[in-house]
């Protein structure tokens, strides 16, 4: 394994791929030798040139921060001596720079084609409560429905604390996300379980569904039934029988919609897993497929890269709004726009939001942006889409599923067991994580800094694994039985 990496020719830092002891001499470019002035932890940065106080720290070929003090070559660079160089609301100019990917050979997977033409990669029964008051009932029904499960159909409940005592956009978020999930093609059947007196009751929620397959979606209002559990079980039985009529069939990969998210980053996130997912995204798009990138706050500092890849001026304008609306959301709640990264990110070697964002946005690959989605909006344009959602793992992953993603690729340098409503494939940035948490990790991108692997080989392996997952292969979190739902909380609770 390499000891260190200089990512871009113009960088004035290197990233330690393994701990560099004090006194270690590195030669990141011809004619340059630098001695480490102190130990450099794995994933962290070391200056390879003197950086004056107020000077720019360059990584990925871009500024990731400003030196708080003079930083001699060989110094460990982190939060103690570098700060963000970002401001508040900015003015942007459209300077398009992109190329449409060349079409590549078609690929197929085995999916479930629904009556509306949408394609699912799972055929499970989802129990969706309209309000938090029904959470325990929904969970109990799911447990008692084991008798109706099969190898291709499981039953689980998506509990949440919302659906009542909400106002304005907050309530709209709940209704929109629940409606998106109720009509999601990954569900072979859905039982919508209402209480009866909640704001987002079933009659209200139906107006958000649009046209839906009545054979796949059933409703029950608990206050109208003497035994809501027994009657719900009867409906689950009917849904399971209906789901059994769907069979997997060959489907073109151009019907795949893949969400892309990262969390618990480390110094290798922008070197291994994130750019690997970016290459996957480009490959899927070259076959006519669709990808969605989200977590807007982790675009701050790298947003102009995405803006200049917008296919039209209108999409550029939409992306400017995407960024500035989120900045205004922060300031309207009296929060600092650039308060990031998290403690785990910092421990892993991420020093500033620019540092994280420039690594994070590499998941988008190089394809042009063809869609910009509001929170809760479903994807309608093929190719790369940007989605408005926060950086919170569960909230952002749920938003990706609600937008139509059948699978989510989740890169991580720290590890996490959570799962979205759809299969959530965990991709580790480093081999020690993949080894230690084999029950969490589905794919190890850490091999990309080890001998014997190539980007082309690992991209193909990841693409093939996604096709296998779309065809029924369960990811680790599914095997563990994890299914989570989190809705973006905004506004007043009564």
Keywords:
alpha/beta, Archaeosine Trna-guanine Transglycosylase, Chain: A, domain 4, 20% strand, globular, Rossmann fold, 23 strands, 494 residues
Q: pLDDT average, as an integer?
A: 95
Structural domain tally: 3
> What proportion of the residues form beta strands (DSSP E)?
15-25%
Q: Quaternary status of these chains?
A: single chain
The helix/strand class is: alpha/beta
Total number of strands = 23
Q: What would you call the shape?
A: globular
Helicity range: 25-40%
* N-to-C CA distance: 56 Å
Biggest sheet details: 7 strands, parallel
User: Strands across the major sheet, in which order?
Assistant: 19-20-18-17-21-22-23
Low-confidence stretches: none
Radius of gyration: 24 Å
Number of helices: 13
Task: Give a verbal description of the structure.
The chain has about 500 residues and is α/β, with parallel strands linked by helices. The protein has 13 helices and 23 strands. The protein has 3 domains: about 80 residues, Archaeosine Trna-guanine Transglycosylase, Chain: A, domain 4, CATH 2.30.130.110; about 120 residues, Rossmann fold; about 230 residues. About 30% of the residues lie in helices and about 20% in strands. A hairpin with a 2-residue loop joins strand 3 and strand 4. It starts with a strand and ends in a 14-residue tail after the last helix.
Question: Topology of this structure?
Answer:
Blueprint: E1 4-5, E2 13-16, E3 25-29, E4 32-35, E5 45-47, E6 56-59, E7 62-67, E8 76-77, E9 82-83, E10 108-113, E11 119-120, E12 124-129, H1 135-144, E13 155-157, H2 168-182, E14 187-194, H3 202-206, E15 217-221, H4 228-243, E16 249-252, E17 257-262, H5 273-286, E18 290-293, H6 303-307, H7 313-332, H8 343-347, H9 353-360, E19 369-373, E20 383-387, H10 393-403, E21 407-412, E22 424-428, H11 431-436, E23 443-444, H12 455-470, H13 476-480
Parallel strand pairs: 12-13, 12-14, 14-15, 17-18, 17-21, 18-20, 19-20, 21-22, 22-23
Antiparallel strand pairs: 1-2, 2-5, 3-4, 5-8, 6-7, 7-9, 10-11, 10-16
Helix pairs in contact: 2-10, 5-12
